[in-house]
Amino acid sequence: MGCFPCYGDSSMKEKDKKRINNRVRNDNQNNLGNTKNQTNNNRHVHTRDDLAQNSKEQKVSPLRDVKDEEAKDASQRRDVKDEDAKDASQSASSSDASPAENISGDGQPGTSFKARTFTYDELVEATGRFKEEDFLGEGGFGRVYKGFLKDTGEVVAIKQLDRNGCQGIREFVVEVLTLSMADHPNLVKLIGYCAEGDQRLLVYEYMPLGSLEDHLHDPRNNIKRLDWSTRMKIAAGAAQGLEYLHDKMKPPVIYRDLKCSNILLAEEYNPKLSDFGLAKVGPSGDKTHVSTRVMGTYGYCAPEYAMTGQLTFKSDIYSFGVVLLELITGRRAIDMTKSAAEQNLVAWAKPLFKDRKKFREMADPALQGRYPTRGLYQSLAIAAMCLQEQPNLRPLIADVVTALNYLASQKFNASSPSSQRAKQEQVTEASDE
Ligand SMILES: Nc1ncnc2c1ncn2[C@@H]1O[C@H](COP(=O)(O)OP(=O)(O)OP(=O)(O)O)[C@@H](O)[C@H]1O
Ligand SMILES: [Mg+2]
Fold first, then answer.
1. What CATH number corresponds to the domain at position 131?
2. pTM summary value
3. From the centroid of its chain, how far is CA 406?
4. Closest Cα to atom 9, ligand 1: which residue?
C-alpha cells in the first residue's frame, strides 16, 4: 500500500519504511491551510471532559496523560506537517473531532464503556513474553500477537504500539473510545487496553481466520480460495458494520480506514471491521463535511477527500466500493506488479463498467467461472455506484446493505446446471474473441 509519507527522514530504517508505506498520510494539503474548524452543535455529543470523567472509573485511563502525550507525540513526529499538530490541538473544540472527544454509544456516558484495563505484566504473561510463534502480523500501529487470558480463558489478539511507528497515542485513544462504545457483531470487540508508563497495548477478540487481505491477496497454500457466496457474505457483513457506524452510533462516525486488511474474519467467515484509530465524528447540523488532514490508505481514499481534505460519509462509501471490487475481481486496490494501466484497480475498472460484455472479464479468475452471472452483474453495479466521482451520487450505506443482503441470500451452487451454463457461456465468449 502506498503511503503519503508522514516521515521524510531518508535515513529511515527499512522496517519503518515498510510500515509507513502501509499508511497514507497525504501531505498534498495545499487546501487544508484554508479549512476552518467548525463548531459541533450536536446535542448528543459529549466533550472530552465527560469522557475523562467517565474513564476515571477505570483503573488506568487511556485519557489520563493523553493531552500531554498527544502534544509530546506530535512534537516528536518531526516530519509531520504543522497541520497535524494544529489538528490535534484544535480538535477538542472543533467538529473535526475524533470519537475520542465526543462519542457515545448510546448517549449515556458510563453505561457503555466496557473495556477492561490490563497491566503490562498481565499482557507479557498472556503472550508468553511476546513470543515469535504467536506473532500475527504488523501494521502502522505496531506488532500484533496472539495471547491467552488465563482468568477468563479467552484467546485474544494483542496489538502493541510501536512508539516509532506512524500512528500514535491519539490513534490509541480514538480506538479505545470508539470501540468501547460500539457494539455490533460486525465490529471487532475490544476486550481491553493497557496504558502503563509509555506502553500502549490494545486487546481484541481473536479472529481465527485472519484478515480478508490474507484470503484474497495472500492465500497461503493451505487456505481455501474464497467462493462466490462467501465473498458476498463478507461484503454484506462489512456493509452492516459500516451501517452501524454511519447510522446507529450517536453521533455517527466516519470510519476512514476501510480496506481488506481491516476486515477480519471470525468463524464461518463472519466479517468484522477493525482499526478505528482514524475514525472521526461525522458532520453535524447543516454541515456537509468535516475538514481534516487526509489520512487513509492509498488506493482506498475517495478522490474528493484526497484532494480537499473534506471528509464525508460518502468517503467511506467509496472505500467500500474499492473493497467490493477487490472481492469481485480478486485484484488489489493498488498492484505495482501489474502494467501501468492495471496498477490502480478503480482506474482499470472504470472503462469496463461501461461495457456489459466486459463484465465477465472482471470476475476473479480464481473463481473459475463459479459465480452466478446475474449476481456478478449486480455486484459490479453496486461497486460502480459506490465509486462514482461525485460523492452525492454514491448510495447511502443502508441501501448498499439492502442490496448486498439480497445478493448474499441468493444461494449459489457452483455445480448447479445454471452455473455450468454460465461457465459454458464464458468459454463460448472467450473463443468468440
Ligand atoms: N483481532 C485480531 N485477530 C487476529 N488477527 C489480527 C487481529 N488484529 C490484527 N490481526 C492481524 O495482525 C496483522 C496486523 O494488523 P494491523 O491492523 O496492525 O495492520 P494492518 O491492518 O495490516 O495495517 P494498518 O495498520 O494499516 O491497519 C494483520 O495481519 C491482521 O490479520
Ligand atoms: Mg489493520
1. 3.30.200.20
2. 0.77
3. 24
4. 144
